[in-house]
Fold:
Amino acid sequence: MNIKAKSFLIDICSIKDIVIKAILLLVFWCVVIYLEEKNPDWFGYQRLFEDGAWLAESGRDYGFLLIIKIFKLFFGNNYLLFRRITYVVFSIIIWLFLSKKFLISKTKESDTLLFSIAFIPLFFLRYTMQIREGFAISFVIFALNAMFKSFEEERPLTSLTHLKIFIFLLIASSIHSGVSFFLGFYIFSLLLGKFKIGNSLDNLFKSISLFLFYLLLVYFTIDYFYNIKDSYYTGGIVIIQLTFSKIIYWIILGFIIAWLIKLNRLYLKQHTTNKILQIFIKNVFCLLLLVFYCIGFWFVMTQFSNSIVSAISRILSLTLCLNIFILSKLSPENRKVIYSISLFLFVDQIRILIDSLTYNGFIY
Structure:
């Protein structure tokens, strides 16, 4: 193939990528404009914008309150303008995340259509309704970008990269403490990756540490979301009603998680140089999914409190959506599986949106 033909093909691919991203942004803006005040979180965020509401009272998520203060410093007390500027920022972030070299090494190519489809379940609610979580997860993705670029290029993380990852995850946790488990897992992986006391004792110590860490994580997740004052969890203690559709939903979810764990393990076998990132990926995208799924399924089958099931499901949903987006970049050869899972997750996000608009609450 001559140089002119190659250049022509590159131009066509570039145009195709731009068109795909433009369509995605158009869909995003159609959703946010349609929702506006129909959004069940609209007035909750308005209270946060006006006086900090429950965040200021409980002394948490100061990062998000700082974003509001910075906005007011330049634009005053215009809540509608705050939302519009937030959507503009999210549009820029979407465009950036969908760039070809995001998350992967310079030598690797990625499929814009594939990771655009995989990205929809991640941003569909978090960039339109749950904007606090949207800001937080954006910083988590920036941290993961620094991690996976090193992982893909088979090079160790430098001190500067570790600092960058830590700062991104710290900012994310300050905006929405519900994603602070990423920071916890990163610190945990860093400590275990550096810790050596002999093979048998080393493995025993790591196993005990991991067990205790998960106990704490489950406890704080339930405590955080169970007592939260967000609009999705203000219905008081409601005992979950066991239905056939819920059982089918959780069984399908189990198959999806099993597939994702398999894909994650296959990816890890191809990249073995960075021990710290190995521990992080195994814990967040394998063990976390498995542990929280088992707990959530058990709570559903025993008809436990709906608020606690929602807490577990929220962590599962976030991690699943993030995992499939990352795999669409790192393992594009599994496109059929990624398309199928992305479709299921997107339909599930639509279900959650309809439930929230109809009942003003999530139903899992």
